[in-house]
Design a protein that fits this description.
disordered N terminus; DNA-3-methyladenine glycosylase II; Formyl_transferase-like_C_sf; 9 strands; DNA binding; 3-methyladenine DNA Glycosylase, Chain A; DNA repair; DNA-binding; 275 residues; 17% helix; alpha+beta; 9-stranded antiparallel beta sheet
DNA sequence: GAAAAGATTAAA
DNA sequence: TTAATCTTTTCC
């Protein structure tokens, strides 16, 4: 199913607005049909919906759906205005959910993010402006890419006005277009969530290096952020891997994800429905 | 100038 | 559970 939507979009020219791949994706019958498995039960356990059905035979189980929710149809897909990014990272983070990241033929939909803010003991900006973190202190709407553990390229989207020092980490995405390129870069011939759930995986799938740091995302060309459907429900939780920070920042619920999607990194059991 | 630690991942 | 891997930042 997923492959059908993707190969369909690949067959279309992706350069002009009128024939962009998302329109065909969002109107494709498979994308418009929500899978039963993702329906909310309304019980107290919010995580129930995203877990696979246990007692169904493997061959009968529905495959992971690249569409995190029923997409809201939208006519034109375009880059967002730079003003979109000039807000508190805590406000920007959830608004990035559902949006599209595009680099040439590869298109990913953002499914999980984390906010990093001024006066945040977990934020890279906590040491002030350095050669690495300079983009974080620039105006919102630019990429901030850094090397983590000497291996992984982590993509952030700079938030707020110039001088603030805030950014949103992209933790997970769903593949929308360019699956073969994504798989090639990842070295994985799969379409399961393992392909793109984790910040290092997103950077690898987009073929990023630190040279992309400070690249504007609101102008056509290179790496772009495009408008996308707003998720129906959102999950929140504490951020991952920041045990070195102050308790108030370790515990802050600044991690956001689209409810019901399988495209969320570990740990998932710390996420709860937003109010 | 040296050393520790890190917004992680994949394999055992 | 742990090794891989290297830049950034801090400490002496």
């Amino acid at each position: 199913m997923q492959l059908r939507a993707m190969s369909l979009s690949r067959s279309l020219p992706a350069t002009t607005e009128s024939s962009n791949p998302f329109v065909s994706f969002c109107y494709s019958p498979t994308a418009m049909t929500p899978t039963k498995r993702f329906k909310r039960t309304g019980s107290r356990n919010s995580l129930q919906p995203s877990e696979p059905v246990r007692k169904t035979r493997r061959s009968l189980r529905p495959k992971p759906n690249p569409s995190p929710q029923s997409p809201i149809p939208f006519g034109k897909t375009k880059t967002l205005h730079r003003d979109f990014f000039l807000i508190d990272a805590l406000d920007l983070a959830p608004r990035l959910l559902g949006k599209f990241l595009r680099r040439e033929d590869v298109v990913l939909q953002i499914t999980e993010v984390e906010a990093y803010r001024p006066n945040d003991s977990a934020c890279h900006g906590r040491f002030g402006v350095t050669s690495r973190t300079a983009p974080v202190f620039g105006p919102g709407g630019h990429a901030y890419v850094y090397l983590c553990y000497g291996l992984h390229m982590m993509l952030n989207i700079v938030a707020d006005k110039e001088g603030a020092g805030a950014a949103v980490l992209i933790r997970s995405c769903a593949p929308i277009s360019g699956l073969d390129v994504i798989q090639q870069r990842r070295g994985l011939k799969t379409e399961k969530p393992i392909l793109l759930t984790g910040p290092g995986k997103v950077g690898q799938a987009l073929g990023l290096s630190t040279e992309w740091s400070n690249h504007p995302l609101y102008t056509p060309g290179g790496l772009e952020l495009l408008d996308g459907p707003e998720p129906e429900n959102i999950l929140v939780g504490p951020r991952v891997g920041i045990q070195y920070a102050l308790p108030e920042h370790v515990n802050a619920l600044w991690r956001f994800a689209i409810a019901g999607t399988p495209w969320i990194s570990a740990p998932k059991n710390t996420l709860r429905p937003a109010l």
